[in-house]
Design brief:
binds cobalt (II) ion, binds 2-amino-4-trifluoromethylsulfanyl-butyric acid, 26% strand, alpha+beta, Creatine Amidinohydrolase
């Protein structure tokens, strides 16, 4: 899990200089594909339920599962890049936000709230707490900022498989859901909208967008439950997990 998580995070670090105004998301994905191959790893998403790319790239009002395309980035676009790799049979799944050009004020607030929501969810991870405690921490914070949590997609168990039980909901009640136990591995990957939480999937059967066309953001870490808390497998080695950090 360490190796897989660190490779996925390193790829997201190294893709940073390739995100700029005028760049196509297909080119970003091509570079990611090359990086996965150069590391001797396998993309978990190529061939997954018919998906054909090494990343999902979700721009502006795309909530998740954006398909890389020839369309180019415009100044002020915010985007999530999500990469999952397999190393020695283990899965590392992480995503983070990027910006083309300068980040607009409202987008910056959304990105910050989404990042803080992920970290508050992670801080609720310890043996004895429940999955509901994670969702509750995320939901109460996001709604206190007058933004909304997407209900239609969730985090998931992972390890030697991509998507395992349980569903990791980003909303919930304290004490609800399964209990957290040392040795569990799963993702937390809240999607936060500036407007309403409802989504719809486009005719390509993948791209999920906000129904009200409002901006959406997401961050994802793969984590493990330790004896006393949590360990994040997908921390950024370059300290670039957040778009305003690092060089
Ligand atoms: N990486 C995504 C997740 O966080 C799943 C992408 S599946 C794909 O679970 F097929 F769309 F790539
Ligand atoms: Co995931
Ligand atoms: Co992912």
């Amino acid at each position: 899990m360490h190796k897989a998580g660190q490779l996925a995070a390193t790829i997201l670090d190294k893709i940073t200089p390739h995100v700029f105004v005028g760049q196509s998301t297909a080119e970003i994905d091509r570079i990611i594909t090359e990086m996965v191959e150069a590391a001797g790893a396998t993309s978990a998403t190529i061939g997954y339920r018919g998906y054909q790319h090494a990343s999902c790239i979700s721009v502006n009002h795309v909530v998740c599962h954006g398909i890389p395309s020839a369309k180019t980035l415009k100044a002020g676009d915010i985007l999530n890049i999500d990469v999952t790799v397999i190393v020695d049979g283990w899965f590392g799944d992480t995503s983070r936000m990027y910006v083309a050009g300068d980040i607009p004020r409202k987008a910056e607030r959304l990105v910050q709230v989404t990042y803080d929501a992920l970290m508050l969810g992670i801080e609720a991870v310890r043996p004895g707490n429940t999955f509901g405690d994670i969702g509750h921490a995320i939901q109460t914070y996001v709604e206190s900022q007058r933004m909304s949590v997407v209900r239609d997609f969730c985090g998931h168990g992972l390890g030697r498989v991509f998507h395992a039980p349980p569903n990791v909901l980003h909303y919930g009640r304290p004490g609800a859901g399964p209990r957290l136990e040392e040795g569990m591995f799963f993702t937390i990957e809240p999607m936060v909208n500036l407007g309403r939480p409802e989504t719809k999937v486009l005719a390509d059967d993948w791209t999920a967008v906000t129904r009200d066309k409002s901006l959406s953001a997401q961050f994802e870490h793969s984590i493990g439950v330790t004896a006393t808390g949590f360990e994040i497998f997908t921390l950024s080695p370059a300290g670039r997990f957040h778009p305003t950090w690092g060089g």
